[in-house]
Amino acid sequence: MLGPIEGNPEYLLIVNANNLLVEIDNEIDIIHDFVRLIYRKRFPELEQLVKLPLDYLKIVQELENDIDQAKINGNLQKVLPKPTLMIVSVSAATTQGKTLTNEGLSRMIEACQIAMELNENKQIILSYVDSQMTFIASNLSIIVDLRVKVARLVACKVTLAARIDSFHESPKGEQGRFLLNEIERALKRLQEPPPVKTIKPLPIPIDHGKKETWWKTT
């Protein structure tokens, strides 16, 4: 790519795409707040148990008024880890919330569907931005990619640590130190240069002599 990157049409498109991603996230947050205002009448404890907006909206979409089905709803296992799902199920069984009206339920479900559609569009835009970053900013994309890997790694270990704490296991923090060591080892591996590929020489062709073919024999 020649010339200042700021003048490149592809770069400007990526900038606009990133701005659109921010707008989509803001819209999802607004929908999340709207749905919480309605659903806290039915299941007030849920917003304290599930903090991520999309996860919260997916659960609301699945449960609707039938929160007693939380324990046996298979789709919820795709959204929540088992320990969190267990807590949600227990809270659903003991909540003092009241059944929503059909009107309130309808408005809430429609809002959830809009949020899911927005998220689908967000994933399409993200996929496009990711595919173009290596061409627009090849050096920066390498650093950002490493940062994303580190964030995912830490998030995974944090989830495991939270599960351990929720069951009151390892009270002296042994498992936490073990998980920290795993993170440090993984970080060292991520910083290692990729292995050098050895180029194997092609084998010398073996001459078996000329063979007569049936259409050339006399």
Give a short synopsis of this structure.
The protein has 218 residues and is mainly alpha-helical.
Tell me the total number of β-strands.
0
CA radius of gyration: 27 Å
Strand content: under 5%
What is the fold-level CATH name, i.e. the topology of the largest domain? Helix Hairpins
**Biggest β-sheet: count, sense, barrel?**
none
Structure description:
The chain is mainly alpha-helical and 218 residues long. It has 2 domains: 1-136, Helix Hairpins (Orthogonal Bundle), CATH 1.10.287.4070; 138-190. It is built from 7 helices and no strands. It has helices at 9-39, 46-49, 53-63, 82-94, 102-136, 138-166, 174-191. Mean pLDDT is 80; it is low at 213-218.
Q: Key features?
A:
7 helices; mainly alpha; 218 residues; 2 domains; disordered C terminus
Present the secondary structure layout:
Layout: H1 9-39, H2 46-49, H3 53-63, H4 82-94, H5 102-136, H6 138-166, H7 174-191
Helix pairs in contact: 1-3, 1-5, 3-5, 5-6, 6-7
